[in-house]
Amino acid sequence: MVRPNPLRQWLAANPLRLLPASFAALIATGTVLLRLPFSQADGREIGLLESLFTATSAVCVTGLTVVDTATAWSGFGQSVILALVQLGGLGIVTLVSVAILLVSDRIGVAHTRALAAEVGTDTYSSISRLVRAIVITTLVFEAVFAILLALRFHYAHGYDAWSSLAHGTFHSISAWNNAGFSLNSDSLSSFASDFFVLGAVSVAVIVGGIGFPVLRGIATHRHHWSRWTLHSKLMVASTGVLLVVGFLGFLAFEWSNSETLGALPSGDRVEGAFFMSVQPRTAGFNAVDTTALSEESIVVSIVMMFIGGGSASTAGGIKVTTFALLAYVMWAEVRGDRDVNVFHRRIPESVQRLALTVSLAGVGILTVATLALMVIGDGGLATSAFEAVSALSTVGLSNGLTAEQDGAGQILLTALMFVGRLGPVTLATAITLRSRPNLFRYPTDQPLIG
Fold this sequence. Notes:
This protein is an all-alpha fold and 450 residues long. Helix content is 64%, strand content 1%. The protein is built from 18 helices and 2 strands. The longest helix is centred in the first third of the chain and has 31 residues, at 127-157.
């Protein structure tokens, strides 16, 4: 008699458990690899907690660091970090599915549920083609941006052939996956006047963070806006609005700041402001000193980081479509409309409640985490909130508080990155899978609001 596999029974009871279990296993593997002596630079001894923090940040495509990626790790250690970023960005569940597809070209129902949660689709019959498209799209775009950046590093900045290729590949994968890891100690500050590098990284971040369903829709229907799905329309339009708002905000608040944009020529300030508007969408690169940002820019950054990027993408946050949908809900309520209509489509009440749940859950976690950092890290409100939302939304921007954290602070930020990477996906899909019709309804009543 064959004994039942406890692990398989545990996963079969709820396939969504495969998501956190897979990411936790990948983080544990990365931590072990980073603890190896030859993963660390000569003369460096990086502890277990720092290795765990780095592995979590890489797998969760965050970019927050407690040790300098450029100097603390050897070439092998940096390769491990890059591999963790790639696996975390693609999603370990997606990679497992690819392996299954290579063998049988079929995916079981239990595994399909977990995969649907990761890639953002409920069409189980098309999941195989979607997985192939995700992998191919990722590798092609990463290769293109790696070549562009490598050529720029070589011909414009004098890098040798190997260094150009290494830096181009590393920053391409990091940008596409919205990770924010860099092989430079100052991130991209030394390229603050290089429009090509900042532009290429910005495009990679935007396209990588817009979401695979949107890219697939655009590739299928191209310029036929009327044929785009509601999600694609909402995502593209809202992303454009947020980029413009962020650009104008940073341009206004940092133009005269001599420690950030004010130190650059006028033309470079415009480019720098656009780059700054892109990065809080969960990328985490910086071309200016984020510790010198004005209070107004910190507020703009916190809001942008909390919103994040696209669903089923490498970006974090509550997602752009969630925020946009709540804005439409408010507008419909102000107008007194019975229904919430977006681009001539009516939004079901279940989706509205789901958006509200994800948003309020994010606000609740962020509030508790900010208070905890104020107590543990002895930071101010703005500083603690900035760091907390950067970890929870898997952004990676820092105002210096992360590097100052002791054991308790590092553990808190590690947990925030893990929850932020999996939380919205797991929560939204768990609610969707548990939805069921009510057999009865209570009488209505109306409490006072406002």
